[in-house]
Write a structure and sequence with these properties.
The complex is a heterodimer.
Chain A lengths: L3 E2 L3 E5 L4 E7 L4 E9 L6 E6 L3 E5 L2 E6 L4 E6 L8 E9 L5 E3 L3 E6 L1
Parallel strand pairs in A: 2-11
Antiparallel strand pairs in A: 1-3, 3-8, 4-5, 4-9, 6-7, 7-8, 9-10, 9-11
Chain B lengths: L3 E4 L2 E4 L5 E7 L5 E7 L5 E8 L2 E5 L6 E7 L2 E6 L8 E8 L10 E2 L3 E5 L1
Parallel strand pairs in B: 2-11
Antiparallel strand pairs in B: 1-3, 3-8, 4-5, 4-9, 5-6, 7-8, 9-10, 9-11
Classes of the chains: A mainly beta, B mainly beta.
Chain lengths: 110, 115
């Protein structure tokens, strides 16, 4: 399978900004998703990028550079409820076959 | 509520048993998936069905057999359960049609523990 790399854990304080990077092999790339997963719960959709550039959705933004095989998820004005695992998932080829990274555990401290 | 639902939420069973997990979606999607999330939190696709037809079949032991009676349901039957099958199994659905990508929506998960 394709390697999808993201940091294991990041810690930040309430109100701060955190950027989670994700790198992937570019061959066969067909879209990139970010999901949030709280402990013991299902992954929930945050953002989707297929073209280069920045997608902004409230406090969350996601950036993609297809030529570099790179994406980041930016979380602004961190809140305690943002403590969760953030999963980078890349679609390679057709039929929704998503390859997930191992997830980045974000810990928000008071 | 419109959603992806799975039953049961928890499943504890002995090695060697056969068990099934059911999944239903009322989002009107054509494509459904089964994922396995192991103790290291890696989420890996197992199967995908589009309109009741098998589209993706990853290298999963043939003890695992998905069944899609209609496009709103995708069940997972597991024979001769092994300790290594212990994981959380997530069902998901999307409007993916092979060319256009759509968001996958996940069910709440089934935590399977094999003793």
């Amino acid at each position: 399978g394709q390697n999808i790399d993201q940091p294991t854990e990041m810690t930040a304080t309430e109100g701060a900004i955190v950027q989670i990077n994700c790198t992937y092999q570019t061959s066969g790339f067909n879209g990139l998703f970010w999901y949030q997963q709280h402990a013991g719960e299902a992954p929930t959709f945050l953002s989707y990028n297929v073209l280069d550039g920045l997608e902004e959705k409230g406090r969350f933004s996601s950036f993609l550079s297809r030529s570099k095989g790179y994406s980041y998820l930016l979380l602004k004005e961190l809140q305690m409820k943002d403590s969760a695992s953030y999963l980078c998932a890349v679609r390679f080829g057709g039929w929704g076959k998503l390859q997930f990274g191992a997830g980045t555990q974000v810990v928000v401290t008071p | 509520d419109t959603a992806v639902s799975q039953t049961p939420k928890y499943l504890v069973t002995q090695m060697g048993n056969d068990k099934s997990i059911k999944c239903e979606q009322n989002l009107g999607h054509d494509t459904m998936y089964w994922y396995k999330q192991d103790s290291k939190k890696f989420l890996k696709i197992m199967f995908s069905y589009n309109n009741k037809e098998l589209i993706i079949n990853e290298t999963v032991p043939n003890r695992f057999s998905p069944k899609s009676p209609d496009k709103a349901h995708l069940n997972l039957h597991i024979n001769s359960l092994e300790l290594g099958d212990s994981a959380v199994y997530f069902c998901a659905s999307s409007q993916d049609n092979g060319e256009n990508t759509d968001t996958q929506y996940f069910g709440p998960g089934t935590r399977l523990t094999v003793l």
